[in-house]
C-alpha cells in the first residue's frame, strides 16, 4: 500500500516532469522560430543581392546595396497609358561579332560625344576618354560599325536602383560584341572595393557587366541616384536634355510591375554616333 508521503512525492515528481516537458517544447518552438527567421533573413539578403546584381546589370551581376526607401511610381503591366515614344525607324540590329577589342585609335586628351537618336528623343552623352579610354574607344568603334542602330533598350529598374539599360542587339540582356573590356575608373565615386557601396549619381552612364572585366556593349543610364557596388565602369555623363528623355521613359514604368523589367515605353536606338570635338 502506498503511503501518503510516497503519493505526495510521486505527484511532485510527475508535476516536475510535466514542467520539464513544457520547457523542452518551448525551447524547441523557440529554435524553430529562430531557424525560420534566419531563413527569411537569408532570403531577403539574397533577394537584395540579386536585385543589385548587374545589369545582367547590367548583365546585372554586381554586388549591391540597400534599396532606397523611396521609389518612383511605375505604370502597371496592364497600364493603358499611351506609349510616350514614336515608332522605330525601319531596320534591324546587326549580328556582327569580333574576337578582340578594337585597336586604340582615340585621342585620350580629346572630347568625345555619343548621340543616341531614340524613338523617345535624343540622348547626348559626354564621354570621358581620359578616365575610361578602352571603353570610349570601343564605343567609338561600335558606333561607327552601326552596332547600336535599331537596338532596344531592354531593361528599366524603378526600385532600389534607377537605370535604363541598353546596348544589347539581341534585346535579351545577354548579347554583346563578342569581346570583353577591362574595368576602368572604378574609383570615380570614392571607393574601389566591390564589397563597398557607392552612389552612382543621376546623369551617369556606366558599363553593364557580369563580373570583373566582362564589359561588352551593354551600358546603363542612371536617371536617379542609385546605390551600387563600385564595379561598373563609369565613362560619361548624360546631357540635361537627355535626362528629360530618361525621366519620360521612367515615368511610363516597366512591364513586370516588380520594379525591374522591360520598359513600357518602346525605347529603340535608331542611330548612335560618336563625334570628336
Automatic annotation (TrEMBL):
Check the record and name the InterPro entries matching this protein: Cyclophilin-like_dom_sf, Cyclophilin-type_PPIase_dom, Cyclophilin_A-like
Catalysed reactions, as listed in the record? [protein]-peptidylproline (omega=180) = [protein]-peptidylproline (omega=0)
One GO MF annotation is:
isomerase activity
Q: Which residues cross the membrane?
A: 35-55
Q: Where is the composition biased (Low complexity)?
A: 64-82
Compositionally skewed regions (Basic residues) per UniProt:
1-10
What keywords appear on the UniProt entry?
Isomerase, Membrane, Rotamase, Transmembrane, Transmembrane helix
Asked whether the UniProt record includes Isomerase among its keywords, one would answer: yes
SUPFAM superfamilies given in the database record: Cyclophilin-like
Q: What does this protein do?
A: PPIases accelerate the folding of proteins. It catalyzes the cis-trans isomerization of proline imidic peptide bonds in oligopeptides.
Q: Under which name does UniProt file this protein?
A: Peptidyl-prolyl cis-trans isomerase
In which organism is this protein found? Streptomyces humicola
Amino acid at each position: 500500500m502506498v503511503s501518503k508521503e510516497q503519493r505526495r512525492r510521486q505527484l511532485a515528481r510527475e508535476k516536475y516532469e510535466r514542467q520539464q516537458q513544457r520547457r523542452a517544447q518551448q525551447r524547441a518552438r523557440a529554435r524553430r522560430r529562430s531557424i525560420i527567421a534566419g531563413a527569411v533573413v537569408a532570403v531577403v539578403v539574397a533577394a537584395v543581392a540579386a536585385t543589385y546584381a548587374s545589369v545582367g546589370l547590367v548583365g546585372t551581376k554586381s554586388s549591391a546595396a540597400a534599396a532606397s526607401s523611396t521609389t518612383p511610381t511605375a505604370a502597371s503591366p496592364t497600364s493603358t497609358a499611351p506609349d510616350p515614344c514614336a515608332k522605330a525607324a525601319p531596320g534591324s540590329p546587326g549580328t556582327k561579332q569580333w574576337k578582340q577589342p578594337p585597336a586604340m585609335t582615340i585621342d585620350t586628351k580629346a572630347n568625345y560625344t555619343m548621340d543616341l537618336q531614340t524613338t523617345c528623343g535624343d540622348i547626348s552623352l559626354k564621354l570621358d576618354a581620359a578616365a575610361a579610354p578602352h571603353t570610349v574607344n570601343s564605343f567609338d568603334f561600335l558606333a561607327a560599325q552601326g552596332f547600336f542602330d535599331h537596338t532596344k533598350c531592354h531593361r528599366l529598374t524603378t526600385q532600389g536602383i534607377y537605370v535604363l539599360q541598353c546596348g544589347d542587339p539581341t534585346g535579351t540582356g545577354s548579347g554583346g560584341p563578342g569581346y570583353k573590356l577591362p574595368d576602368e575608373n572604378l574609383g570615380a565615386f570614392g571607393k574601389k572595393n566591390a564589397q563597398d557601396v557607392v552612389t552612382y549619381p543621376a546623369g551617369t552612364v556606366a558599363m553593364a557587366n557580369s563580373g570583373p572585366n566582362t564589359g561588352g556593349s551593354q551600358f546603363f543610364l542612371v536617371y536617379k541616384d542609385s546605390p551600387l557596388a563600385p564595379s561598373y565602369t563609369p565613362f560619361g555623363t548624360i546631357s540635361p536634355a537627355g535626362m528629360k528623355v530618361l525621366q519620360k521613359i521612367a515615368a511610363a514604368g516597366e512591364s513586370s510591375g516588380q520594379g525591374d523589367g522591360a520598359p513600357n515605353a518602346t525605347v529603340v536606338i535608331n542611330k548612335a554616333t560618336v563625334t570628336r570635338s
